[in-house]
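Dear colleague,

Thank you for sharing your sequence with our group. We've completed the structure prediction you requested, and as agreed, I am returning the results in plain text so they can be pasted directly into your records. Please verify that the sequence below matches your submission; if there's any discrepancy, let me know and we will rerun it promptly.
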Amino acid sequence: MTYLPPIALGVNIDHVATLRQARYRETPDSENAEPSPVEAAVIAEGAGAEGITAHLRMDRRHIQDADIVAIKKAVRTKLNLELGNTHEILQIVLSVKPEDVCLVPESREEVSTEGGLDVAGQLEALKPTVATLQEAGIRVSLFIDPKDSQIDASARLGVEFVELHTGAFANAVGAEKDLELTRLIRGSAQAHAQGLAVNAGHGLNYQNVRAMLELPHLVELNIGHSIISRAVTVGLDAAVREMKVLLCR
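Please find the predicted structure tokens below.
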């Protein structure tokens, strides 16, 4: 029997900062400001996370610029920084130099990133950003829906990864859930065939994540809200370890 390593886990710590901002929005750098995204990153790594993910949004609703700098210094695995394709955020990323970047769509109205990036429709706008990041030695991923057109466009851009958006699967019920899983399986196979490494994430939790083991060639899952929610009752170390067990094939 061929040994398959566990799927890597990237722990998204955005909502640790969300909780901090609920009380310390005006003074996130105060010595009283808690909880600390940096401390959360260190605990998640200690519990077995292969990477830390954070999204520096244009409106700074949770993660702040100073958080990114501090997290980059603290992590020993890798930092995967999610961002919209804006000049301001790009300059910050180039100064921090995370190991990975995942370009995502971004709307101020959404609570969390909903839907994949329209790579096919934004190909020319994305080309210089991807080139700039890669020239700086940063690996690039694109957060996309598992659609042929988006996978093909991602391959044309020459990025290293795609991250398949699993939100439709997470929200579906009954036969629709099976259909969405099939789309993810096909998308993963298509991306791999075009030379793209495959990550996935959004809406995954302790109840539905095992289905992701059916995706061929899957390298990493990025999971945030469910882990941080579980941490409220069992602690972050235990929450990460529980998720890691579920990712063993």
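Summary note from our side: The chain is about 45% helix and 15% strand.

Kind regards,
the structure core
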